[in-house]
């Protein structure tokens, strides 16, 4: 919903409340009230929309940042596991090579 739709819905709601005598805005004189209330409602909606948008952008950026950090941590973890497996394989091959060249009987 865009801001003008939001404004129209708000003004319809306020108009209905005024007709039912449930709301009587006491802003300025009767002559200018209709014009001023509409401008104030529109300004309120614009400011509220701006603040909510800033909040949503901030939350989205935080979520994106945390997703990126989780992905990076997972990649680092996988890299560490692969390095560890590679070191084990190297140590095992070195050990088997040294045992294979050993002339002492009964070691394996």
Helix fraction bin: over 70%
How far is the first residue's CA from the last residue's CA? 77 Å
Pattern of helices and strands: HH
Number of helices: 2
Task: Find the count of extended strands (DSSP E, 2+ residues).
Answer: 0
Radius of gyration: 36 Å
Give me the secondary-structure category.
Answer: mainly alpha
Counting structural domains, the number is 1
- Residues in β-strands, percent: under 5%
**General shape:** rod-shaped
Query: What is the residue-averaged pLDDT?
Result: 76
Largest sheet: none
Low-pLDDT runs of 5+ residues are: none
Can you put this structure into words, describing what you see?
By secondary structure, this protein is an all-alpha fold. It has one domain (3-82). The chain is 82% helix and 0% strand. It is built from 2 helices and no strands. It is rod-shaped, with a radius of gyration of 36 Å. The termini are far apart. The relative contact order is 0.06. The mean pLDDT is 76.
Helices, strands, pairings?
Elements (H helix, E strand, L loop, with lengths): L2 H17 L10 H72 L7
Helix pairs in contact: 1-2
Features:
108 residues; mainly alpha; 2 helices; 0% strand
Summarize the structure.
The chain has 108 residues and is mainly α. It has two helices and no strands.
């Amino acid at each position: 919903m865009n801001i003008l739709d939001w404004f129209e819905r708000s003004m319809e709601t306020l108009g209905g409340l005024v007709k039912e005598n449930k709301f009587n805005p006491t802003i300025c004189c009767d002559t200018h009230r209709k014009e001023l209330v509409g401008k104030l409602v529109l300004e309120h909606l614009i400011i509220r929309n701006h603040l909510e948008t800033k909040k949503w952008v901030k939350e989205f950026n935080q979520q994106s940042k945390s997703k990126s950090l989780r992905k990076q941590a997972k990649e680092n973890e996988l890299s560490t596991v692969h390095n560890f497996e590679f070191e084990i394989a190297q140590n095992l091959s070195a050990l088997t090579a040294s045992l294979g060249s050993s002339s002492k009987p009964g070691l394996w």
